């Protein structure tokens, strides 16, 4: 009597066989991705791995998928590491993927290129976005590992350039799984602190794996979101990371970043001295110009002889007084003429002048001029005045003019 | 960014000083104004020198406590140089 399985028993048995076969655990499979689906909201990836003749279902749970640094695409040739199991409900054979890498190009390179392209499309690398690095920072923010080579280099260079420069370190792991998040958080923390003028973000040189945090989206977005200018300083001169592309300024090394961030104290002092000298010189020039102007004004116009107005007035006064004198003189002499004329007229009226023409005046006994014969008696004496001399006469007879 | 509360940050001080020097260099300014600019300039030179010579050097570590508050500690890293 053959054994009759239930479906569940059979798939469970197959499953057990699969699980016990060490070749199926943690094995590598190469193939091409098709039907890739990032399931929302679970975040698990489902796809099919296939080649010319066969296909194999694949699943990658979110916890694993999150570590993959590129986005799978249909048609992409990949290497998948995982375990082969039966999905008992459907009876399907599946690979539960732990790791996935593009075959051919390196996974990291691909991830780098993809992120770079995406951020470039968003405009995160645009020159207009870049904030100027302050020329005279008073405090420097640093994001790096407190135990790495970078912090030593940075502090050494900063101290050499300006022993008094203040700094604050926001420590962050710069490699390993926590690095992207820690670096991003440290940048954000310095922004909350807000008392630094510039932030240096970086680490010393290393393999592309070791530098990886600086090629992650977390770090790129934290740099882009920083209100404080960021100088990136990752690895050696030849390593250009995404962080370098987003940063406001890229320094080839941590030491170089410190050089770019911190001005030399002695130079600051000599700049200040130069400014002071220029200030004093230009002030002198200003005064000189004004003095010159006063001088040139003083040689012309009223200022050259401040008494010119008085002199003018005096002259005017003289002229006026001359005219007054002339006027008076004329007035007076005019009056003289009139007086002479009047005197002549007066002369003509004088009784004495009439005497010259042969008339005479007769004065009565009382001494008044006689005008009526009735005012004198016969026998009385009268005085007759001639033009020349007088006569004493006796009245011999009288007659009235009416008789 | 914010240096000593009462003082102008060095960067701004230098900027203002440069503006004043340029203004005096580039055009003739009425005497009163020139004197006032000059006085401001000299004051800025003194302030900036003061900032350079007497800046209190701070070496700190910026952390975040579990409540999400910023925590500042003096740095005890092997000294520079």
The tally of strands of chain A reads 13
Major sheet: arrangement of strands of chain A:
1-2-3-5-4
Helicity level of chain A? 40-55%
Class from helix and strand fractions of chain B: alpha+beta
Count of strand segments of chain B: 2
Largest sheet of chain B: 2 strands, antiparallel
Q: Uncertain segments of chain B of ≥5 residues (pLDDT<50)?
A: 1-6
Q: Which of globular, elongated, flat, extended, rod-shaped describes the shape of chain B?
A: elongated
Question: Which keywords apply here?
Answer:
heterodimer, A: 403 residues, alpha/beta, five-stranded mixed beta barrel, five-stranded parallel sheet, 12 helices, 42% helix, rod-shaped, B: 81 residues, alpha+beta, two-stranded antiparallel sheet, 2 helices, 51% helix, elongated
Topology, pairings included?
The complex is a heterodimer of chains A (403) and B (81).
Chain A: H1 7-20, E1 27-38, E2 45-50, E3 55-60, H2 62-65, E4 77-87, E5 92-102, H3 107-122, E6 139-144, H4 149-161, E7 166-171, H5 179-193, E8 198-203, H6 217-225, E9 230-234, H7 242-246, E10 249-251, H8 254-261, H9 265-298, H10 301-304, H11 308-349, H12 351-356, E11 361-363, E12 381-385, E13 390-394
Parallel strand pairs in A: 3-5, 6-7, 6-8, 8-9, 9-10
Antiparallel strand pairs in A: 1-2, 1-4, 2-3, 4-5, 11-12, 12-13
Helix pairs in contact in A: 4-8, 5-6
Chain B: H1 10-26, H2 31-54, E1 59-64, E2 70-74
């Amino acid at each position: 009597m053959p054994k009759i399985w239930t479906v569940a028993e059979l798939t469970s048995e197959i499953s057990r066989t699969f699980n016990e076969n060490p070749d199926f655990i943690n094995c590598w499979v190469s193939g091409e991705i098709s039907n890739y689906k990032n399931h929302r909201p679970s975040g698990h990836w489902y796809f099919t791995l296939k080649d010319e003749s066969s296909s194999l279902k694949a699943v990658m749970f979110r916890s694993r998928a999150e570590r993959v640094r590129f986005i799978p695409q249909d048609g992409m040739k990949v290497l998948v590491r995982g375990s082969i199991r039966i999905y008992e409900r459907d009876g399907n054979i599946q690979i539960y993927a732990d790791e996935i890498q593009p075959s051919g190009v390196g996974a990291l390179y691909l991830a780098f290129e993809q992120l770079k392209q995406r951020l470039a499309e968003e405009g995160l690398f645009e020159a207009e976005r870049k904030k100027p690095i302050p020329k005279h920072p008073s405090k420097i923010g640093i994001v790096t590992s407190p135990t790495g080579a970078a912090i030593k280099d940075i502090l050494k260079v900063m101290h050499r350039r300006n022993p008094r420069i203040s700094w604050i370190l926001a420590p962050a792991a710069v490699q390993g799984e926590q690095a992207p998040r820690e670096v991003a958080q440290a940048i954000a923390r310095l922004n909350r602190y807000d008392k630094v003028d510039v932030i240096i973000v970086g680490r010393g040189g290393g393999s592309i794996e070791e530098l990886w945090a600086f090629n992650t989206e977390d770090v790129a977005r934290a740099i882009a979101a920083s209100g404080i200018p960021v100088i990136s300083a990752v690895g050696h001169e030849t390593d250009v990371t995404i962080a370098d592309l987003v940063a406001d300024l890229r320094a080839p090394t941590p030491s170089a970043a410190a050089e770019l961030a911190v001005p030399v104290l002695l130079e600051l002092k000599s700049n200040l001295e130069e400014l002071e000298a220029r200030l004093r010189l230009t002030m002198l020039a200003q005064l000189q110009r004004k003095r010159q102007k006063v001088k040139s004004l003083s040689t012309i116009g009223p200022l050259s002889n401040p008494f010119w107005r008085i002199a003018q007035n005096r002259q005017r006064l003289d002229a006026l007084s001359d005219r007054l004198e002339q006027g008076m003189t004329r007035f007076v002499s005019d009056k003289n003429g009139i007086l002479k004329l009047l005197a002549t007229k007066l002369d003509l009226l004088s009784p004495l002048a009439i005497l010259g023409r042969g008339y005479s005046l007769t004065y009565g006994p009382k001494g008044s001029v006689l005008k009526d014969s009735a005012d004198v008696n016969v026998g009385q004496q009268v005085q007759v005045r001639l033009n020349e001399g007088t006569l004493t006469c006796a009245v011999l007879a009288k007659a009235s003019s009416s008789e | 960014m914010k240096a000593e509360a009462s003082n102008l940050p060095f960067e701004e001080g230098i900027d203002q000083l440069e503006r004043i020097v340029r203004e005096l260099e580039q055009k003739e300014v009425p005497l009163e104004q020139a004197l006032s600019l000059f006085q401001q300039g000299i004051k800025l030179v003194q302030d900036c020198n003061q900032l350079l010579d007497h800046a209190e050097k701070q070496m700190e570590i910026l952390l975040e406590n579990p409540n999400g508050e910023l925590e500042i500690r003096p740095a005890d890293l092997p000294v520079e140089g």
